[in-house]
Amino acid sequence: MTIGLLVQRAAARFGDRRAVQGPDGARTFAELAGRASGLARGLLSLGLSPGDRVLELLPNGCALVESDLALAMAGLVRVPLNPRLGPAEWERIADDCGARALIYDARFAEDTEALRSGLQAVVSGDAPGRRLDDLVTGGPVPIGVLPDDLVGLAYSSGTTGRPKGARRTHRNRIASALAMTHEVLGGPPAADAVYLHAGPAIHTSGLFVLPWLMAGAPQVFLDHADAATILAAVEEHRVTHTALVPTMVSRLAEAADGTPLRMLAYAGAPMPPGQIRRASERLTPHLVQYYGLVEAMPPLTVLDADDHARGLAGEPGLLTSAGRVCLAIDLRVVDEEGRPLPDGEQGEVVVRGDPVTPGYHNAEGRADLGKGFTNGWLRTGDIGHLGPGGRLWLTDRRNDMIITGGYNVYPREIEDVIAGVDGVAEAAVVGLADGEWGQRVAAVYTCLAGRRIEPDEVLRRCRAALPAHKRPKSALSVTSLPLNATGKISRREVLRRMEAGERW
């Protein structure tokens, strides 16, 4: 199976049903397949060849889905750009991947002026370049695409900040789509199920595009959505499913008092138990957490709705788990030498299977990739242990580890304690340079609307719950925590601000 065949199958089965709807209109399954196929032909007519890298800078909407599917059908390699990164980072990615073309939205015309130099430019809207709509032509796509052909490069930062592109094949994406369907959703969604893309579809929300296409159910796209916009869309479009980063789940829980959602998934970071309880009470009890990486497409593990219910009803340890390992994934916890560790012993998480990237683009000669491959296993850089029921508990990221007085301290454990303080919304913990201890533990946190929690109360809770070497030496209440381009709390930016002594 390839993505092109999947789209053609969906068009043949579901024809006139609504497939996608966004700020730029709506498409039936037949219209979506026809426009994607036509755009694939148009892109090849520009002189592009299978395997060429094509940058994509589009907001949530129909054009984004058409571009994604068209590039896959044409055998081209999609390189999605996050609008939040900005021109300098886009240009570094373009240089690393050797891009030949750019598909962009007219709103980014000014910011992409330098980026477009030397590239074939295709624009959605009125701006320099070939109009996307004008490239959509009739007829089949004369390209034979195979499951192990490259379909995309997913970029993140290496340990030095230099972009690194994880290679993704048709096999990777379809394996992820099947696992999302059966492990996260519990089976194909019903025909009346509606998925809401409230976060950027180039990230975790986009993992649901193919499952919904396979099921013949509609998807609705929002652009730059806040909590109020999401709640209004849920009501207007009778939304049944969505996935959000924990930060947005928390904001939604503050703004809502019940929704008709049949599933609210969260990923990208864990949620503290108190935050999970608020989401269950104020949004929906049907919560699902899934875990994965840029290099190993989610889901690798799933904490399903039953696990959440059990955790809230009296098994709180479940809520700190990343869930059971998915059937199609081989996952282990190993020591520094790569030797498997027994259940309960902490080490690095390694994985292999169809969702795992075959490697990085331009990896030769680079020492800053942060993750490595050993005998077919991806070393994730995540620290954790396996436990009862084949579940995985994640402690932290190896590169976020704090070393204080010779002890290894992982921020997440401390953040969970602080988030458990009544009235605290979110927390971030970092290690500041210290002449005596090497690093000292420091915390920042935000409060729920209308609440004020003093730093002394946070520090008291930490003293009561944590051994001495893990207790923060300082705590700071701030109005908001900085987020990275994917909506996660950026410990790196927290550290920079604290080291610079900036006022928040």
From TrEMBL:
It holds the Pfam family AMP-binding_C. Keywords: Ligase. One of its GO terms (molecular function) is ligase activity, forming carbon-sulfur bonds. The keyword Ligase applies. Residues 413-488 form the AMP-binding enzyme C-terminal domain. Residues 8-361 form the AMP-dependent synthetase/ligase domain. The keyword Ligase applies. Signal peptide: none annotated. InterPro entries: AMP-bd_C, AMP-bd_C_sf, AMP-binding_CS, AMP-dep_synth/lig_dom, ANL_N_sf, ATP-dep_AMP-bd_enzyme. This is Acyl-CoA synthetase (AMP-forming)/AMP-acid ligase II.
